[in-house]
Amino acid sequence: MPADYSFDVVSKVDSQELMNALDQTRREIATRFDFKQSKTTIESTEPTITIVTDDELKLKNVIDILQSKLSKRGISLKALEYGKIEPAAGQSVRQVLTIRNGIPKEKAKPILDAIKASKLKVSAQLQDEQIRVSGKSKDDLQRIQQILRDLETELPLQFQNYR
Question: What is the tens place of the pLDDT at every residue in 24-35?
Answer without folding.
Answer: 999 999 999 988
